[in-house]
Amino acid sequence: MTHVIGEIPGTHHMKTPDRPFVYARAPIMLYWEITRACDLACLHCRAEAVPQRHPQELGTASAMTFLRQILDFGPPLPHLVITGGDPLKRRDLFEVVAEATRLGLRVSLAPSVTEALTGEAIARLQRAGVVGMSLSLDGSAAGPHDRLRG
Fold first, then answer.
1. Residue among 96, 101, 125, 128 at smallest CA distance from 111
2. How far apart are CA 79 and CA 91, in angstroms?
3. How far is the C-alpha of 17 from the C-alpha of 124, rounded, in Å?
4. Which position has the higher pLDDT, 149 or 103?
5. pTM (2 decimals)?
6. Does the pLDDT of residue 98 top 80, yes or no?
7. What is the chain's mean pLDDT, rounded?
8. d(CA 58, CA 74)
């Protein structure tokens, strides 16, 4: 039995078998720390964020190759969560998301809440195919949040 993946724009033609994930073969979710670059300095940052992109980060061509390698897991494909640092520090983010979506991956994003996260950026991400986004709020007011997030 197959089902149509209807949530992803442009993939209505793609079908995958209805079968459970086999964890030894493929994850349900794949988290990609696409960059260490971030304008915040969170006390708890596990990505060891820095203001600028690291010179050894994957370039655009290598990022596209990585996306194609995810297809090797086979159906059902994992849900790709792009995180960082701040993914919005990458100029090619929209291109990467669009390619992941074109390949049939569901994509979510975990950006930093900075001035780069504008309404326009969110609309572009949605057009590129992002189906979900997570944002961290660390306090009921700006003071506690900003002390933690730097």
1. 125
2. 22
3. 31
4. 103
5. 0.78
6. yes
7. 82
8. 23
